[in-house]
Amino acid sequence: MAEIKAARFNDYSFLDQDDFRRAYSNRGRIRFYVDGISCGKCVRKIEDLALTVKGLEDLRVDLASHTAEAQVDPNHLEFSELANHIQRLGFNPIPLKPEDSAEQLQRLSDRHELIRLAVAAACAGNIMTFSFATYLGASADFASVFSWLSFALYLPVVFYVAIPFYRGAWYSLARKQISIDLPMAVASFSGFIFSTIELIRGKGDIYFDSLSGFLFLILLSRYAQRRLQRRFIRPEELSETLQLSRVRQVNESGWSWTRTENTRIGERILLQAKETLPADAELISSTAHFSLAWLSGESRPKTFLRGAIVPAGALLINGEAQLAIRKPLLDTSFGKILKSVEEQSVGGTRIANLADRSAQWLLATVFTLAIVFLVGYWAVSPEEAVRRALALIILACPCAMAFGTPLALAASLKKARKKGLIVRNADVFEKAASVKTIFFDKTGTLTDSDLTLTTPLSQIALVHQKVILALENESLHPIAFAFRRAFNEEHSLPPVDGWRESVGLGVSGFVYGKFYEVKRNSKPGTQVSCTLFEDGQPILDCVFSSILKPGSRAALDTLRGEGIQVALLSGDAKEVTENIGAQLGFTQTEILYECCPAVKATEVARTPHAMMVGDGVNDSLAMLRADVGVAVSGGMATALKAADVYLANPSLEGIQALIRISREGMALIRRNLAISVLYNLIGGSLAVMGFINPFVAALLMPISSAFILLSTYIAERRP
Amino acid sequence: MIVLYLMIPISLALGIGFVGAFVWSVRNGQMDDTETPAHRILED
Amino acid sequence: MNETISRLEEVTYDDAIVRKFLLACMVFAGVAFAAGLLAALQLAFFPLNMELPWLTFGRLRPLHTNAAIFAFAGNAIFAGIYHSTQRLLKTRMYSDRLSAIHFWGWQLIIVAAAISLPLGFSQGKEYAELEWPIDIAITLIWVIFAVNFFGTLAIRREKHMYVALWFYIATIVTVAVLHIVNSIEIPWSYMNSYPVWAGVQDALVQWWYGHNAVAFFLTTPFLGLMYYYLPKAANRPVYSYRLSIIHFWGLVFIYIWAGPHHLLYTSLPEWAQTLGMIFSIMLWAPSWGGMINGLLTLRGAWHLLRTDPIIKFMVAALTFYGMATFEGPLLSIKSVSAIGHYTDWIVGHVHAGALGWNGFLSFAMIYYLVPKLWKTKLYSDRLANVHFWLGFLGIVLYYVSMVAAGITQGLMWKAIGPEGQLVYPDFVETVVRIVPLYWARALGGAFFLGGFMVMCYNVYRTIAASTEVSNETVRVRNTRYSSAGEGHRALEGMVTVFSVLSLIAILVGSVIEIYPTLSLHSYIAKTANIDPYSPLEIAGRDIYIREGCYVCHSQQIRPMVSEVLRYGSPSTMEESIYDHPFQWGSKRTGPDLARVGKKYPDLWHFRHMVDPRSVVEKSIMPSYSWLVKDKTDFLSLRKKVSVLRNLGVPYSPEQVAQADRLAEEQAKSVAQAIHDQGGPEGLERREIVALIAYLQALGQKEKQPRPTDQVTVKE
């Protein structure tokens, strides 16, 4: 899942419906994400459609974002036809919603930033020419002309280029905070006033060159920073690639396309093969096979019987299925998790907030220092006081905190994504970096979550099969799936009254008038087993076998090699657990068996710097108590409610990657902080002592920012 | 060196002209896609 | 598709014009290279000057440089621009008629140059020797080219303007400005004029033009061509399109300041020199951006270097470009310039760029275009490879020999012995030492020319075997991308074109207003400690310019010990204050003449002109015996002096009115002196007397000579 492969559309007709047209197009303009574009030839093939397809007025491909934007004459061409044309060429077009106002604003602001940058560069470059000439000894006449030219060229800088800094400073002050914009705004403007006064008085102390160069370099580093943080695919496009935004609504004449958000609970929808269910829905038609890949990371089909609730995000393997909506997408765990994953941000993490506050603290200190110094030194020499104070303000840069930290976190997020780690919140990196003990759940984590019923079917009466199936119908426990896989699904199931599931322990309910329970066994034995109780009496034992996940041992050994303590927690019986544990290299003291979820949680909670790796469904309590919770199965949706990280790729290598990325990220942040602190201390002292004039300060400040950026960029480049 | 009073305004005018051209090109969307054009010319 | 699609168009590219420019390019390349080879041989073996005025080195060199720059590179640029622009914009050129006028006009200009330069009609400014009627023609044709180009932009059917087009735009706009400013001149005859600038002003303007002409005529358009033809030839996209955009805009925002690096250690004020040096060094970055982008485009396709001659030429071109754009800033450093300036090192530097970058890139383009334009295969890839190696060998030989010559000579000039005397007091010793290297250079040039002839044969055979020419038609949507109106190609609709024309008009207008102010600027007149040239000396000066003496002799003594010892006190800004055009020179094939006045008797100069070897045994200077036969044009002197007076030179009204008579009088006394010293008599009306009068005036015009112990030396 590191690369999101979009599902193939088999029907674009929904695009021609009014509500979809309104949603997806704007005055004949429509955008597609096009899977499969790789080079200029593809660009040409697609763009040439504009020459052959009547009604297609313009079609432009953007390689970087894999999108194609079309201008269509609706009288002559339907959007669905256009999509089909593209598909016939061998590509997979997915309609995207047009830019909303937020994105349009973003685009406009990007353009403005670029223009500002250009103006800053041109003005700074030319001012530099004139000031160099003066420094190099141009005759008095020319020197004066050059100085006034510098002034004139600085006007666009102070009144246009610096606007974002004024704005930022103003807003932050309004919120009673200090942002990094403040010193820059102050420096640009006060430097302007000061230099102009000096110019009029005929003195040489003008700083238009330093200030304009400084502003240009800062703008440049901000621009670079924004690009480093940019993602290529925008949030809602994730849902689009899963085709979750439209669904077939069942009606008298069959079905029709409807925007998912227009559907209601209880309405019937039709799902066809390879389509993803965009809501929690009850299966109305007969047995259907779904892949819960998005939910559990496995693509092996799961069987659902009529009446079962199929979770949102399930993909129908084959045939057709009719379902009734029980929960709209946004209310489902899957939908919520999807949204939060798409909208990951680094703001709000503990360390980012800490960085922000440190930045503010630093700035406040510098400002106070500057003012104190200004007042104190004024008596000695007003110009020198202003010069040094200006130098101090220009020089001070909480760059490591202001953007170094968020950048480092963003870089870590990117790396994590690449490794198939879905991180809920960037906070996790700080904690994962200092993990000392990792607790592993057994089933589903170290072993395959799929269990296989080894008890022969002949030993299980048909009526009991039905009872078990009925009770396990709504359970997503591996045992439930094992039962479903084992028993013949064509039975019609009896109704169940008072159904309850104790997560991890068993299910119970009234069937055929009797009280049945299917309980996990804590009997000794090396296998997972459960017992069917009828009215409190055990009548049947079922045994399951589970297999070690490939690579588990290797992954555990790697972690051990890094000095991390590992432990095995399981609700299973002693022998089963110890058997598996021995295979995986755990010592006796590292194994805890027969733990119910509460016990797991307590054990984890009392261990400092603990990570819990497990099944998102059963181990949620432990994960919440751990410093870092990592879910490897149980479905992304459920998992991320309790866990901090979800391994989309169920291999345990992800854990090692997580720890490595976290450590690198934290090291980077610390390194950036060190650079910044050192720079501010030394630079600040030198400025106050008069060794650094504003010109030099203007050079140093962007250089220090550039250092931080470079250090982050290099770190990000390493895989 | 008096000629500098001519050369400087000319150079500045040229510079400003080019900045103007840049502003035009950004607003015209010329800078929106800086990857596809390099491929497009190959398939002319 | 069985239905016709409305608003689709068929566009046929005009390839005929490309073919024309390409063939013209090759024809004049031959002329340029041959002239260059002859000039090189003349330096190695002076008798090749053949005592023909039209072929002497002094007149041949401008013919060579103009042919190389405007005829060869110019036509190459136009061929490439016309070919690539149409395809990049998916439209035919705006106006076939303008294309034709451009082509024929340009070739006429070249022919006019080829005729006027050997006849001696020269303005005495490097790469701007062409006289005023031709300057006007260049402006007109350039404007027509601009209109055609911007018009094509306005009717484009492709929205995005590929970066190459921006390079073309920068070229068109900037060259126009540079040419106009540097060519502001006052005619004094139908084919002669004086620039309004003089002395240091002229020096600044000339090298602001000169360097930026190199930049915007020999670099930016070629970078544009490279950004189109290299990806096409290698079938790979540019390594980083973003980088190309960045380095283009970075370049044009601040480029215009590099000129002063041609004037280091001259009497140009220190700060201007240093500024030029700093900016020249800064410009190394965007230049290498282009080179790196080009070379890295071949990442993963380096095998093409072995198989495809076009790629060979392009890679070599980019490498030479990188070399030259590194060497340039290096030479801009004052301490390096101290050795290299006035020597053949600069010549080597120029030719590495001209032959390596411009030459090879043009050849690559020709090999790429000819098969396409004549719809056939190249006759022989093997011959193309032969061309490459011949050319490459030629360039290496040329470059190495000239750098060696330059450094040798530079060091010899500077060599000071233990008692503080010049180790090589005789200038000619330093020349003799490097003549063998002149032979090597000529050989290099011959190889280069040989390679070119192989290409001509290859192209000839290719075209001869072709049965049809290209007439490419494409289908496009007739969407309009500019605000230039719906469907009408009226001039009013073309906003951009109008802006360009307005810019030019404004410039011309403001210049015409400014120049009187400048010319009458009292600042100059009041503090000038300099006497203007007498009318006869003006006549002599014009002969000096006509014969191209400035091509081998400088008139600017640098504040260095070795130069002071060899030539006298360093030149001041004031001394050249009335020189229209300035004659500081940029090469010393012969010694500096700034203070040659009164150093040698008139007879010496007479003998030297008629046969240099009679007074300097090892001299390689050509003979100028026709100066003894040709008569001085006294009549035009009145006009000349009047024009100069209007330009601010302080002649009195009767000097203007009596210019010819004053000259005749002075001529008589000079002729008399020659005769008295033992030379022939009756030379009063001969040109040689005017020239001698001028030479004897050099360095003698200070009203109050400065005391010699106040000489300041800078190194």
Task: Kindly estimate the percentage of residues of chain B that lie in beta strands according to DSSP.
Answer: under 5%
From the helix content, strand content and strand pairing of chain A, which structural class follows? alpha+beta
Which structural class do you get from the secondary structure elements of chain B?
Answer: mainly alpha
Q: Which parts of chain A are unreliable, with pLDDT below 50 for 5 consecutive residues or more?
A: 1-5, 231-236
Please give the order of strands in the largest beta sheet of chain A. 15-27-26-25-16-23-24
- CATH homologous superfamily identity of the largest domain in chain A: HAD superfamily/HAD-like
Radius of gyration of chain B, taken over Cα atoms and rounded to an integer in Å: 17 Å
Number of domains of chain A: 5
The helix tally of chain B amounts to 2
Q: Terminal Cα separation of chain B, in Å?
A: 50 Å
How would you sum up the major sheet of chain B?
A: none
Determine the oligomeric state from the structure: heterotrimer
Q: Can you tell me the residue ranges of chain B where pLDDT is under 50 for at least 5 consecutive residues?
A: none
Q: What's the overall average pLDDT of chain B, rounded?
A: 86
In helices, the fraction of residues of chain A equals 40-55%
Distance between the termini of chain A: 17 Å
Percent helix of chain B, as a range, is: 55-70%
Q: Count the strands of chain B?
A: 0
Largest interface: B-C, 30 and 48 residues
CATH architecture of the largest domain in chain A: 3-Layer(aba) Sandwich
What is the CATH domain class of the largest domain in chain A?
Answer: Alpha Beta
Keywords:
heterotrimer; B: 44 residues; mainly alpha; 2 helices; 66% helix; elongated; C: 715 residues; Cytochrome C Oxidase, Chain A; Cytochrome Bc1 Complex, Chain D, domain 2; 2 domains; two-stranded antiparallel ribbon; 3% strand
Report on the structure:
- The complex is a heterotrimer of chains A (719), B (44) and C (715).
- Chain A is α+β, with helices and mostly antiparallel strands and 719 residues long.
- Chain A folds into five domains: 86 residues, Alpha-Beta Plaits; 105 residues; 103 residues, Calcium-transporting ATPase, cytoplasmic transduction domain A; 128 residues, Rossmann fold, CATH 3.40.50.1000; 94 residues, 3-Layer(aba) Sandwich (Calcium-transporting ATPase, cytoplasmic domain N).
- In chain A, 49% of the residues lie in helices and 19% in strands.
- Chain A has 25 helices and 27 strands.
- A seven-stranded mixed β-sheet of chain A has the order 15-27-26-25-16-23-24, sandwiched between helices. In chain A, strands 7-6-8-14-9-12 form a six-stranded antiparallel β-sheet, with no helix packed on it. Chain A has a six-stranded antiparallel β-sheet with strand order 17-22-21-20-19-18, covered by helices on one side.
- In chain A, a hairpin with a 2-residue loop joins strand 6 and strand 7.
- Chain A is flat and about 110 Å long.
- The N terminus of chain A is likely disordered.
- By secondary structure, chain B is mostly helical.
- In chain B, 66% of the residues lie in helices and 0% in strands.
- Chain B has two helices and no strands.
- The mean pLDDT of chain B is 86.
- Chain C is mainly alpha-helical.
- Chain C has two domains: 459 residues, Cytochrome C Oxidase, Chain A (Up-down Bundle); 182 residues, Cytochrome c-like domain (Cytochrome Bc1 Complex, Chain D, domain 2, Orthogonal Bundle), CATH 1.10.760.
- Helix content of chain C is 63%, strand content 3%.
- In chain C, the strands form two sheets. Chain C has a two-stranded antiparallel sheet with strand order 1-4.
- In chain C, a hairpin with a 2-residue loop joins strand 2 and strand 3.
- In chain C, helix 1 packs parallel to helix 3, helix 15 runs antiparallel to helix 16 and helix 19 packs across helix 23.
- The longest helix of chain C is centred in the middle third of the chain and has 38 residues.
- The termini of chain C are far apart.
- At the B-C interface, helix 1 and helix 2 of B face helix 5, helix 6, helix 7, helix 8 and helix 17 of C.
